[in-house]
Design a protein that fits this description.
The complex is a heterodimer of chains A (223) and B (467). Chain A is α/β, with parallel strands linked by helices and 223 residues long. Chain A is built from 8 helices and 11 strands. In chain B, the strands form 4 sheets. Chain B has a 5-stranded antiparallel sheet with strand order 4-3-7-6-5. Chain B has a 5-stranded mixed sheet with strand order 9-11-12-14-13, covered by helices on one side. The longest helix of chain B has 50 residues. The mean pLDDT of chain B is 83. The chains are: A alpha/beta (223), B alpha+beta (467). Chains A and B meet through helix 1, helix 4, strand 5 and helix 5 of A and helix 5, helix 6, helix 7 and helix 8 of B.
Chain lengths: 223, 467
């Protein structure tokens, strides 16, 4: 899961990045409105944390532009202006949720998780796929009750596949969502990670669709 | 009927105000006009009296000459002649119209008119004769008439025989004529005066109409029905109107600017607070606790005072209006997005347009906080009802927010109404929501009531001033 953080305060930006990375997300970062707008318009993100008060271009304008351009990723608005009129304006501009400053770490994380889940059409924080169970809050994955020991990249890969169950996902898409923008993208490494994840899962759930990509689905769901 | 009564009250209200420009102008022009008319009446009637008296004296003098011409003296000094003055009043008994001829120095009446009838009329002692030995004076006869007498001393016949010829006229005729004239004069001047007063009233009303117009427009602005004073004004007050409009505009922009600055202050304080509170987890436990407590306190303070500043920055501004239904629709849309598991519905009980007599932002702040609480406690539904109630003389908007959650007990309700108290410590929040609502409601003299509905959920009823 790849997240964009647009926040002009350097310390707060760093803290948000640290917190989200610790929680297993790949995080890109922007310090002003223009950069944030550009990244959001060009890169595929699973969620965006967007500050309202930004230099060069304010959060509301960025959001309106994204929605006009047809960018539908969930956006969590960070706002110091926490009068309801500000919140309503943000939601009207296309935000999916808001967090008022100052906030608790857990609150931002919980809301990001909820937004990603909602945008994948999932109702609870527990995602299941056949014998595989995944708790988005604790990032704990089990197969038939057996806890899997996964590296952070494997976790991200599994989480992304689970959030997009049944869909064919290309290597490029996986690369885009698992690595940040500065990563030297080599789709061969994806193959290596998919291989390792298959081994750790122990059940054949990740199908390779020749020439197109991968698909995660429970064995009995297959057509 | 009703209209004329209203007009009468209106007039009364306008007429009774003694501290108005109209009243001053009206009072001073009217007083001056009435004073001048009074002076004119006195001068004209005095002048008239003088003229009439002169004419009267001339008549009596003419009669005297007539008398003197018709009487001659013979060689023995006996007076001859039968004067007929051609006026029947000299024949009428004690008519006040008399003539007599007497000799000096004894003063014995030798000849007299029939009307004198043997009366011994007094003669003036202290009135001097003029160069022609003639004089006039006033006297009273026995019948109580006030008379004007003209008298001349004449040498008649041989020797030093001096005779005094006297004719009199009754002044009552004159008094009556003068009084008639005065009555006519007063009547005419009175009518004229009333006309002038009415004219001055009309002039004042017409002349000061632009000022009344401007006052009316200002009242409209105060009631929020207009932004600027509009209309064409005379050259004398046009600059004043322009200045007032500029002042209103600058006032609005000052409010707007301070609002922006308050917002900026909020932003600039809250980001550092966020950074600090996120850094707390890296501190050793006892220190972390102190810092966290202090950060929370700081945030609460910032929040409270910023909200107060936002409210008072706007309070008393000239124009502020919010369309209730439109704003509610926007809020309902927002809350349906924020609370996916709760359905927010809004019903407006009547079709008429509801307008809140205040800032849209304040309306959103009140409803936002209440709806957020409702959304957190509801299990599936939140219903919002808006209606207008006529509480004479004011109009009010009543908003009812009903959720289908578990509701609150009476003690819980009084607990949540206290600043900073929170029932639900699991969800994030400052506990300031309801106290912010109360602060805003106080500014608008609104009302907030919380009770448990029959269905078991919580019902919040808010009343706000309607425009």
């Amino acid at each position: 899961m790849r997240i964009l953080v647009v926040e002009d305060d350097k310390d707060l930006n760093r803290q948000l990045v640290e917190m989200l990375s610790e929680a297993g997300y790949v995080v890109d970062t922007a310090y002003d409105g223009e950069e944030g707008h550009f990244l959001g318009s060009t890169e595929p993100y699973d969620a965006v944390v967007l500050d309202v008060g930004l230099p060069q271009m304010d959060g509301i304008t960025i959001l309106e532009e994204w929605r006009r351009e047809g960018r539908i990723m969930p956006v969590l608005m960070l706002t110091a202006r926490d009068r309801w009129s500000d919140k309503v304006a943000g939601i009207d501009a296309g935000a999916d949720d808001y967090v008022a400053k100052p906030f608790h770490v857990e609150e931002v994380l919980a809301r990001i998780r909820a937004l990603i889940r909602r945008s994948s059409g999932l109702a609870s924080s527990q995602i299941n796929c056949g014998p595989l169970e995944f708790d988005t809050r604790t990032s704990k994955a089990t197969v038939d009750g057996r806890t899997l020991k996964l590296t952070s990249l494997e976790l991200r890969l599994l989480s992304y596949l689970l959030h997009n169950q049944g869909k064919i996902i290309s290597r490029t898409e996986l690369t885009e969502h698992l690595y940040d923008q500065d990563f030297d993208r080599d789709s061969n490494t994806i193959e290596v990670f998919v291989g390792r994840l298959r081994k750790k899962l122990g059940v054949d759930m990740i199908e390779t669709v020749r020439g197109m990509g991968y698909r995660l689905q429970a064995a009995d769901d297959e057509d | 009927m009703k209209q004329s009564a209203a007009w009468a009250t209106d007039c009364k209200q306008r007429m009774m105000k003694t501290d108005t420009l109209s009243f001053r102008l009206f009072l001073f022009t009217s007083l001056w006009m009435l004073f001048s008319l009074g002076v004119v009446a006195i001068l004209v009637s005095q002048d008239y009296r003088r003229t009439v008296e002169k004419q009267f004296e001339d008549l009596i003098t003419a009669n005297l000459y007539n008398l003197m011409g018709s009487i001659k003296s013979d060689e023995q000094g006996m007076l001859l002649g039968k004067p007929s003055l051609g006026d029947s009043r000299y024949q009428k008994y004690k008519s006040g119209w008399y003539w007599s001829v007497s000799s000096l120095p004894q003063g014995k009446i030798i000849l007299s008119s029939t009307s004198l009838a043997g009366q011994d009329l007094p003669t003036a002692v202290d009135v001097k004769y003029d160069a022609e030995y003639q004089r006039s004076y006033r006297l009273n006869d026995n019948a109580g008439n006030t008379l004007m007498a003209v008298e001349a001393q004449v040498f008649l016949g041989e020797g030093d025989n001096i005779f005094v010829f006297r004719t009199t006229g009754n002044l009552a005729v004159l008094a009556e004529e003068i009084s008639n004239f005065r009555q006519r004069l007063i009547l005419l001047l009175g009518v004229f005066g009333v006309g002038l007063v009415l004219t001055s009233l009309a002039i004042v009303r017409f002349g000061l109409k632009p000022i009344r117009l401007a006052t009316g427009q200002l009242a409209k602005i105060r009631d929020g029905k207009a932004n600027q004073i509009e209309g064409k004004f005379p050259r004398e007050i046009a600059p004043l109107i322009e200045e007032t409009n500029a002042l209103i505009k600058s006032n609005q922009s000052i409010v707007e600017r301070s609002r922006t600055q308050v917002g900026n202050l909020a932003h600039s304080l809250k980001t550092p607070l966020s950074v600090l509170s996120m850094e707390v987890k890296n501190l050793p436990a006892p220190l972390a606790k102190i810092v966290q407590t202090q950060l929370t306190a700081m945030n609460t303070q910032v929040q409270t005072y910023l909200n107060r500043a936002m409210i008072s920055a706007r309070h008393g501004t000239i124009t502020s209006r919010a369309d209730v239904n439109q704003t509610l629709e926007r809020l309902v849309r927002t809350f349906n997005k924020l609370f996916r598991n709760v359905s927010f519905k809004m019903t407006s009980s009547n079709d008429e347009q509801l307008i809140f007599a205040g800032e849209q932002q304040d309306f959103e702040e009140i409803l936002g906080n209440i709806l957020e609480n409702a959304g957190k406690s509801a299990s599936a539904n939140v219903e919002i009802t808006a209606r207008q109630i006529d509480a004479n003389p004011k109009k009010l908007i009543e908003l009812t927010i009903l959720d289908d959650g578990p509701g609150l007990s009476k003690s819980e309700i009084s607990y949540v109404l206290k600043r900073g108290n929170r029932l639900d410590e699991n969800n994030p929040g400052t506990g300031l929501g309801l106290s912010i609502v109360s602060d805003i409601l106080r500014e608008y003299k609104g009302d907030l009531q919380i009770n448990t509905a029959q269905s078991g959920g919580l019902r919040v009823v808010i009343t706000l001033p309607a425009a």
